Amino acid sequence: MRIETDHTTTYTYSEPVRLGPQTVRLRPRPGGPLSEIHYQLEVDPAPSVRLECLDPAGNRVVRLQFIGETRHLCLTTHLVVETGSAAEYVPVLDAAHRLLPLSYPAAEADPLAPYLSGPPAPPAVTQLATRLQERAGGDLLAYLECLNQWIYASIVREIRPTGAPQTPSETLDRGRGACRDQTVLFVALCHAAGLAARFVSGYQDRSAMETDRRYLHAWPEVYLPGAGWYGYDPTRGIAVADGHLPLAAALDPAGTLPVEGSYFGTAESRMEFLLTIQTDAHQAGATRTRSGA
Known about the structure:
With about 290 residues, this protein is of the alpha+beta class. The protein has 2 domains: about 1-85 and about 255-290, Immunoglobulin-like, CATH 2.60.40.2250; about 90-255, C8orf32 fold. The chain has helices spanning about 105-110, 125-135, 140-155, 170-175, 180-190; strands spanning about 1-25, 35-45, 50-55, 60-65, 70-80, 155, 175, 195-205, 215-225, 230-235, 240, 245-250, 260-265, 270-280, 285-290. The strands form 3 sheets. Strands 1, 2, 3, 4, 5, 13, 14 and 15 form an 8-stranded antiparallel beta sheet that branches. The two termini are about 35 Å apart. About 35% of the residues are buried.
């Protein structure tokens, strides 16, 4: 599938400020079936330093530094990718790795250690993980599918453009959450089953919500021995495939922020973004929103 995006993020300040270092995570992750055809990032005001590199999680990031004062910061990306075919995303597991509990090979266990644990799981998460494992008969892929479908059917999807993710307990108690909330819950349920999992942010070909507005999306990935990182999208009840475009993956949501930085001064700031996504089927959607910061 061919996916094209135009994404503009603008910060305006009530009076001149000095910008601190900024980190931008708006370029596709390397590897997999995805091929980058075109990428362009425009920055206004022009930075004094612009460095493109990989962060510790393997994300492609741009680090920016600025000199002088400004009353705005505008970041505009234009991106065109080919995501490959859906068949290229289907995992194949060896018989030794198809059942829970899963034992990761020694060569993979050490680097995966940070992704195998998180905050202590509350009883409700542990109990739900146990029930879903029983429902899946101990089969690894069946468990992940049960988990994906349970969140899709049980957690009402909502849009919350700003704010930190809810804890797994909060999402279970409320019975509703945004994509980042559902992702955090999915990751916690993977950890409770002894599976390595991480948080991913990116774009999707169409929204799970009945709205013309488009936002950055979030979903979880699970590490499968011999098959690598494999994603699920509980907001749509599907596996991640050619309709998803990953930008950043990390242990937690903070490591996937599209723009991370600071400014110095007493000014109030306002953020506005415009995101347009077009697929090879020529489906498009855009959103413009404002929020105080």
